[in-house]
Amino acid sequence: MGTLAPVSGGGAAADKENGGAHVQSTPELDAGALFVLKSRGSWLHCGYHLTTSIVAPALLSLPFALSMLGWVGGIISLLFCGVVTFYSYNLLSIVLEHHAIQGSRLLRFRDMATFILGPKWGSYVVGPIQFGVCCGAVVSGIVIGGQNLKFIYLLSNSDGTMKLYEFIIIFGMLILILAQVPSFHSLRHINLLSLTLSLAYSACVTAASLKLGYSKNPPLRNYSLKGSEVNQLLNAFNGISIIGTTYACGILPEIQATLAAPVKGKMFRGLCLCYTVIVVTFFSVAISGYWTFGNEAMGTILANLMGHTILPSWFLIITNIFCLLQVSAVTSVCDLYCARGADAEKWDEAQISHYIGIDESTSGIGQMREAWESQKKAYTAEFFEVDPCVENIETQLKDKTETADRVCCLQHLQMCFETEERARRLLHNVSALLKPGGYFFGITPDSSTIWAKYQKNVEAYHNRSAGMKPNIVPNCIRSESYMISFEVEEEKFPLFGKKYQLKFANDPSAETHCLVHFPSFIRLAREAGLEYIEIQNLTEFFDDHRAQLADMLMNFGQNILDPRGRLLPRSYDVLGLYTTFIFQKPDPDITPPIMTPLLPEISYDHEEIEWQGNVWRDEERSVQAEHVSGQVPVPVPVPVPIPVAVPVPVSVTVPVPVVVPLTVPGLGKISEQKGILGPGPADLRFPEAL
């Protein structure tokens, strides 16, 4: 049976009026009709085409949609959209087959619109809409393909200078070559490959989610809906729209036109094949992702998976290749205040290619340079005498800015918070040193934990001395391992410049530190172009990476860990005083910028020294800060004021707890300041330390 061109029923009626002599006139076909008029396909080919037109990496957003709908609403929406779209596709197929039998074969959506609405409406209403959709799909596909090519390029050559537009041109040329295929039917092998890849990356994502969910340290799960009732309603509509658009719009008339006669039954079997793949991929990814991450599921589930060290790196790489996503490698590290607690061996273990050491001390820089030269390190190195919290690095180093993949500050960050200007200068210098996409990480005293200990000390003091003057506050925290003394006896402290002395047992000298106000830290970092990733207490860090750290800590003596590799209470107490932090300088050419979580809406009166307003909005009380997959592939041992080396992880993704104010009878306004330094990790989760 040959292929018939579209013929309207009106032509047959006119022949009848002319005496019954029927002469079929074949109208001139345009290029679009010729493209689909190679009717040699089977129902399998039809299934390949339909699956490719519907199943795409957009399905990786389904766990995020479920997080806005919950288990019941999400599963019902998935099922309902699947049933409705399957029914509509099948009904449309039956209608097209019916018209083909009657001699009016409709090859495209535009032909259908012309047949139903007439030539004018079909051409000038439906045509432009369809053209706009196709144009947007082509442009976005080429742009995404260019971004993926740049990922692969950066993986093989992290110092490459090619720009995104060059990769877009390259990918566009590839699409231009593929566009030369003579007919839709010729795409069957490419669409089979697409179907296979969709199954592959869906299987990888599902397996990764299940592995994390059943691990010893699974992500915290919370299946409640976020926000107020109004926000929940808006989120529900958003979730339904995500699910609805994920089912996409299969170009069914064009696909059905590729089937060889007889068409009857073939389209239904092709739809069954397509929806078998849809059920396997959509439901497995959506359910496993939401089960593992709950309402912390991100826009794409890969963002949640990136950063969990329990998953082997090759597994994530393969998954990313299937979805055409890659990450950049570390080649250079900038170490701020490098002479304080110098430990050059950590950079050998990190296998970096270039090291930039910056410190304010002339003697310290000289010692670091001598150590590097004498030990003949495998990496190249540069050293600069600059105070990062005082001087402008851009004017001092000039062409050396934006050269580091990672900037770390393992010591002295807390003293940069002596004034707001010093902290702002430090963070602007960090941003100037970092390449787009790079990370700023380090270690600093955990001010939230220290303040919580201070409050507990005050509570005990008030319970013990109810008859004494309430404005006299003890300023000293003591334990068997250390003593913390605040310089001024006061109930409140400013955001910057609150100093205290930290003295460890058997150490004749005391160290001077400043409390780091974490919301101000995050605010100033955002002003400098750095987005918050996480703040994690060292006790949590040890628990997450116990397998890697236990052997190393055993080498420092028997008074740190118990025989089962757990921290002794004394070690737990000391490590609880410190926290790690990670920020990222977003690269807009590769990934959308990571958004810093909402901070409390507060005001601070420096004269009266009191907090005003509602510290945390109601909806923020129930929401944990978003954790973003970010990789910090520099496994470096970090010196702390005890003989313990704490490495920065290959990748860290830990939820940051929301600090809930603690009500302590008799403390007055001081109890309202529980969490004044949050959103750090101090919600009194350290019973051994307190």
From TrEMBL:
In which compartments does the protein localize? Membrane; Nucleus
Q: What are the start and end residues of every segment in region (Disordered)?
A: 1-23
| Listed GO biological process terms | amino acid transport
| Broad enzyme group | transferase
Gene Ontology CC terms, in alphabetical order? membrane; nucleus
Task: Give the E.C. number(s).
Answer: 2.1.1.56
Location (main, coarse):
membrane
Protein name according to UniProt: mRNA cap guanine-N(7) methyltransferase 2
